[in-house]
């Protein structure tokens, strides 16, 4: 049976939860090569009234550096060699779709955190937002 993911550029958004780490592992298993796997973390925009921003101790550059260090530590195993890591800022759903367009991804692979009922109503669903906004296939994993 042919692998649908053969020669496909795969984008995996991560929030460093256990589910998103499993999605990265699943994407690596599906892809032909790690070089086709791209991991992105979309950090929220910094509020100009946040004390760290006001005192100039926190900036997007500092936040980006922190996320890149976390990527390096989290994905230090040789099984992640060749994977590309990216940091974006803004709304998670929109940021994921925008990044997918920027890298010309063929598919987005992401977890569903399984929120339901009132929690989902309050928090919204990043996976649902990505599904609504994306103009490419989205594989939502349920673990």
TrEMBL record:
So which domain of life are we looking at?
Bacteria
Q: Which PANTHER family match?
A: STRESS RESPONSE PROTEIN NHAX, UNIVERSAL STRESS PROTEIN UP12
Residues making up the signal peptide according to the UniProt record: none
The name on file for this protein is Universal stress protein G
UniProt family annotation = Belongs to the universal stress protein A family.
Question: Which InterPro entries does this one have?
Answer: Rossmann-like_a/b/a_fold (IPR014729), Universal_stress_UspA (IPR006015), UspA (IPR006016)
- Residues annotated as domain UspA: 6-142
Question: Entry's SUPFAM superfamilies?
Answer: Adenine nucleotide alpha hydrolases-like
């Amino acid at each position: 049976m042919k692998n649908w993911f053969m020669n496909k550029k795969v984008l995996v958004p991560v929030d460093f939860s256990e589910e998103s780490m499993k999605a990265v592992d699943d994407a690596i298993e599906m892809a032909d090569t790690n070089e086709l796997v791209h991991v992105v973390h979309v950090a929220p925009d910094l509020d100009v009234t946040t004390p760290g921003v006001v005192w100039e101790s926190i900036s997007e550059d500092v936040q980006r550096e922190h996320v890149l260090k976390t990527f390096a530590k989290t994905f230090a195993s040789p099984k992640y060699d060749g994977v590309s890591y990216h940091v974006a800022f803004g709304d998670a759903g929109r940021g994921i779709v925008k990044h997918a367009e920027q890298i010309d991804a063929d598919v987005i692979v992401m977890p569903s955190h399984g929120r339901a009922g009132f929690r989902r109503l309050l928090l919204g669903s990043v996976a649902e937002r990505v599904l609504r906004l994306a103009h490419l296939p989205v594989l939502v994993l349920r673990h």
